[in-house]
Batch of 4 targets.
Target 1
Amino acid sequence: MPTCTTEPMLPVKTMQDLVSSLNEAMGNSGLGEDLRTVRQVKQLMHSYVSQSDDWVQHAIYHEGSRYTRNLVDDGNGKYNLLILVWGEGQSSPIHDHAGSHCMMKLLAGELDEQLYAWPRDGALELRRTAPLRTNSVAYMHDKIGLHRIGNPSLTTRAVSLHLYSPPYNMCKTFDESTGAAVQSTCTAQKLTSLMASSQNYACSPGFTADPTMALPQGPAITST
C-alpha cells in the first residue's frame, strides 16, 4: 500500500511532472481503498495547470467520432491516464466504472456532468448536473452512482484528462428512460506518439456479453 505523506509535494508544472508524481503517490497499488491516497491524487490533479503544449500530442481526434480516448501512461497496470477529446455537442452514454475510481480534470473547453442514482424500478433518477470548466477536477466511483459527461458547446471541442484505477475495458451503459443496461467491450488501437506507449482507445463494432452479468447486446459506444 502506498504511503500517504504529509510533506509538501513538489510543484507539478508539466504533464510529465504529474505522471511522475502520480506514480510515486500510488506506487504498485493504484488507488485501492485508501481514501488518503484518493485525496492526495485528487490534489495532484488539481495542482497541474493545463498547458496545451504538454498534452496536444495526445489529443488525437477522429472526425465523426463521439469522442476519442488516448493513453498517456499505463501506470504499471495499476491505473491508466487517458486524454479524451470531445467533439462539438457530443456526450457519453450514462455509464458505470466497473468498480474503478475515476478522476477527471478538464484541460480545455467545457463539459457538463450529470449524476444519476443506480436504477431500481424503471427510469433513472437524475440527481444533479454540474458544469466542469478548465482545470476543474471531478471524482466518480460506482458507490456514488452513474454519470454522463457531455460537451455542451456546438462550436468548440473539449479535452479532458482521466485517471482510472484499476484500469478497465468493460463497463455497463444505461437507458435513461427504462434503466436497462448493456455491456461494452473497448479495444486499443496504437497510434504514432511523441511519448512512449501512447494508444488510442476506441470501441469495438459491437458488445461482448459477460455471461455472469446476463446483459443484452447493444450498439457500439465509447465510455468514460
Note: The first strand starts at residue 67 and ends at 73.
Target 2
Amino acid sequence: MTETARPRRRLLVISVDAMSVVDVPFARTLPHFARILEGSWGSAEAIYPSVTYPNHTSQTTGRTADGHGIYANEKVTPGERVPDWFWDARDIACPTLFDLAKEQGLSTAAVGWPATGWSPSLDIAVPEIWDRAGLEPTLAVLREAATPRGREYVDRHAHEIGWDRKHRFGRFNTAVAADILRTDAPDVLFLHLVDVDSARHATGRFTTEVKEAFERVDGWLGELLAALEDAGTAAETDIAIVSDHGHVEVGRVLRANALLARQGFVRLDADGEVSSWDAWVHGCGLTGQLHLHPEADETTREKVLALVEDWVADPEVPVQAFHPLTDMHEDYGWSGPFLGILEGVSGTAFQNLWDGRWLIDRFDAEYEFLLSQHGHLPEQDIQAVFAMTGPSIETGRRITRCTVTDEAVTFAHLLGLEIPDADGRVVEEILRPAPVHQDAVGQEAVSQDA
C-alpha cells in the first residue's frame, strides 16, 4: 500500500478576551463552550505585558514582544491624550501564521483580531480598529484597514456594529466570521470577541454582567459551529478557544506623569498640554513602562532613576518595584523603547495622563475608571485559558500549563507549518497520535505529515 494522503486541515481560533481558567466550571454549563471544552484544556500564561495586543500577536507569531515588537496596546506618544493603538499588521517585526500560511497556499481570514489592519498576507481581514469620533468614522477607517474581500463583509454586516458610548463589535464580528466560514470556507480563521473583557473592566471580575457576557458569547459560538456544519467543513476543523490574560480588581489610579511634571521632567504649556519632556510613563494597565527621551543625557537618566527609587521607597506612592529593561528581557522576553517597568502595588492602574490629581482611590467620589484591569506580570493572579477540540485533538485531556507562544507553535504544527525562531513549543499532550498506514512493502509506518 502507498502512504495515506495527508488529511485536509482547517483551523478556527476564537479569542474570548479575558476568559480565565476559573471561568471554566461555569463555561462548561453552557452548551457550546461545553462542546469545545470536551476536548483538551488548561491554563496558558501570558507574555508581558498581559494586555490584549502583545498577547494576541504572540498567538499568531509564537514570539514574545522582543521578537514581534508589539510592546503594548498603544504606541508611546507622550503628550497625546488618546494614543494610536498597534492597529497595523506591518508593525509586527516577524512572520505571522498568516504569512507562513500564504507561502504554503492556505487561505486565511481574521475578524476583529488585533494588529491585522492593512495586512499584507491575509486573504480576508476585517480588523479591530475604531475611531472615537463615532460610528461613521469607525466604518470609514475599518473599510480602509480591511482587505478588499474584507470590505465586502464590512459593508454586508455594518448594521450589526453596536454603538452607545463606544463601539461594540461582538455581534458584528460573529456575523462576519460565520458568513466567511459559510461563504469562503478558509483554511484558517482567527476571531476576537471582547464582551467578557469589557464586562470585567466595567463591573468587576465576577459579576452578573460577566455571566451574561459568557452566555452571549456561548450563543455566538453556536452560530460559528453551525456555520462549519453548513459549509461541510466541521469534520476537518480543529477549534481553539484562547485568551490573553486574567483580571485584577482595581483599587486606585496612578498618574505617574503628573508626578514627573511636578519634578520638572514633563513640562506643560499655558493650556496645560505637554510642551516637552525628559521622562514619560507609558501606562500599560497594572504596570507602567518608563521611557526616557532619546536626547536626554546621562545626568537626566540618573535623576529619573533616583526619583523612581524614591517612589518605590515612599509608602504614599503605590509603586512596589522597578524592573530594569535588561531584567525584563531576560525574565520575560520583553523589549521596547523603555528604561524598565514600574510595578504597581496590587490593584494600581497606571494612566498616561499628566494633569489632575496624581492618585485617585477607588472609593473616592471622583473615581469613574475601570473596576478591574490587567497588564500585571504574567505569573501573577489567575491565568488565561487554552482549549481545543477537533479531529487532531485528544478528548478529555487536561493541560497542566502552557504559554500563549506555545499556542501559536501548536497552531502552526496542526497546519503543517513551522515558525522560525519560535519562543514556544508544540503542546504535544493534546494531540492525537499520528495515524498508522501501510508502506509500499506492507510494513506499518507512522505518517510523517499527519
Note: The chain has a mean pLDDT of 94.
Target 3
Amino acid sequence: MALEQRLIFKAIGFFSLIAIGLPSNIIVLSTFIYIKVIEKKLLSSNSILTMLALVNLMVIFSKGIPQAIHSVGVRNIFNDTECKIVSFMYRICRGMTICITCLLSCNQCLILAPPSKIWLYLKQRFSQNLPWIMLFLWSINIAIYPSCLIHVRAIANYTTSKYTLHLEFCKHDFMTFGSYVANGIAIALRDFFFVGTMVLASCYIVFLLYKHGKQVQGIRSSDRIPGKTTEYKATRSVLLLVTIYVTLFGIDSCIWIYTLTVSSVSPGISDARVFFGTLYSALSPIVIIKTNKKIKATLKCNINKKLIESTETSTKNSR
C-alpha cells in the first residue's frame, strides 16, 4: 500500500512537472528565437534566458520524463548506451542551470552598477564575450562528468563496487574510492562557487536598489520610483529566479546530507530529492513568461494578429 502511494505521488509530481515545464520552456525558447530572427539581435539577459530554457528542456527530457515513465510501472527503460547518454545529458544540464542562473544575476548586477570606468568596461566585455562565456561554462560541466560515459550502465544482475550510485533505471559505479571522492569534490566546488557567486551578486543588487530607493525618496514623479522602472522589474525577476534556485538547492542539499547520515535511504527520499532537483526547470520559465517584457509584448502581438486574421477570415466567409 505504501509503495502504491509513493508511486502515485511520484507520478502526479513528475507528470505535473512535465505538463508545466515542457510548454512553458518551449514558449520561452521559441519566442526568443522569433525575436532574434525578426529583430536580428537579443539583449544579453534575453540570450541567457534563451539558454536557460534550452537547458531546462534537456533536464526535463533526460530526467523528468524517464522518472514519470518509471512511476507508472515501466522498468528497464534504457540499455547501457542510452543510460550513459541520458545520465551524461542530465548531469551536464543540471549543472548548467546553476551556472546560467549565476550568469543571469551577474549580468543584472553589471546593468545596475554605477557608471564608473571599471563597471562600463566589464559590462562591455561581458556583452561581447557572452558566447565564449557560455562555451566555457559548457566545457566546465562536460569536464566534470566523463565518468558518466564510462561507468554508467543499465540495471541488471551484475556485481558492482560499494562506490555505486543506484538510480531508478541506471547504476553509476565509480569503481574506486578515489574516483568517487574526486567526482564529489568537483561537483561540490562547482555548486558552491556558482551558488555563492549568484547570492553575492544578488545581495549587491539588493544593496543598489536600496541605495537608489533612498536617493529618490520623497520624489513624487512616478517615473522616478524604482518600482515603476523597467530595470527594477527585470531585476525583480532575476532576484525571484535566484531565490527559487537557492531555495530548491538548499532543499536538495539538506536531503543529500540526510542521506549521508543513514545506512539505507528510502525510495521516497530519493524521489523527493530528484523532484526538487528538477523542479526549477518547470518553475523558472513561468517566472520568465510572467515578468519578461519582451516575451509578453511578442505573445500579445501575435495573439492580436491571429485574432485580426481570424476576424478577417470570418468576414470574408460571411460574404
Note: The first strand starts at residue 152 and ends at 154.
Target 4
Amino acid sequence: MVARRRKRAAGRAEEGVPSPPGYTAIPIKFSEKQQASHYLYAREHRVREGTKSSWPPKRTLFILNVPPYCTEESLSHLLSSCGPIQSVELQEKPDLAEVPKEPRSKFFNPKPVPGFQVGYIVFQKRGGVLAALALQGPLLVSTESHPVKSGIHKWICDYADSVLDPEALQEEVDTFMVTYDKKMDEEEAKAKEEEGVPDEEGWVKVTRRGRRAVLPRTEAANLRVLEKEKRKRARKELLNFYAWQHRESKMEHLAQLRKKFEEDKQRIELMRAQRKFRPY
C-alpha cells in the first residue's frame, strides 16, 4: 500500500514539475534502483545586452541544481545524445560578467564544491542546446557502461588522485613560469613604450623606472650579491667577537674586585687580632 502511494506521488510529480520561469526541468536518477527523480533546471545561456560573457552565445547550456554526485564526465555523458560537446564546466555560482579564463590545472585548482553546483555545457552547434532542452528523461547518471563511483570507492579514488606525480607537477610549474615570464616581459616592454608619453589630457605618468634598475639575472650579478652577503656576515661576526671580548674583560674585572675584597677582609681580621684596627 505504501509502495503504491509512493509510485502515484512520483508519477504526479513527474507530470507537472514546478520550475523557475524560463527554465526547463530535466529529470535524472543516480541509478535504476532510485525511485524518485532529481531535476536539473536548464536554459540557454544569455546575458544582458551590452554585457560580454566568456561563454559562446547560442551554443552554451546553463544548468542549475546539479547534485554533488554528478561530475563533469557524467554530465557530458548525459547530454552526449544531444550533439557533440565542446566543454563542460561546473562551478559554485554563475558567472555574472566576463572573466578571463586561465587554463585549468589538476594540481593547483581549488577543491571541488561539496554541495550543489551550476554547469556550463558548450556544444559545437546550436542544435545541441535545443535538443537538450527537449529531453524528457529520466536520465541515468550511473550506468553499467559509464558507472559513477560513490561511497568508499569514491573516497579511495579521491585519495589516489591526491597523490601527485613529481615529474608532471614539475612540468606544469615550468610551463607556468615560462608563460609568466613572457607576460611580465610584455608588460615591461609596454610600460617602456608608454613611459614619457602624455595621455589624452596631456598628463605624463611618472614612474620609478631608472632610479633603481632591476638586478639582471646574470652570473656576475649573483656573485656580487653573494660577495655582499659574505662581507655583511664577516662584519657581524667581528662585532660579535668584540662583544665577547668586552664581556670577558668585565668578568675579569669582577673577579679582581672579589679577590681584593677577600684580601681586605683578611687584613681587617688580622688588624683586629693585633688590636690595631681603629675605624673611628
Note: The radius of gyration is 39 Å.
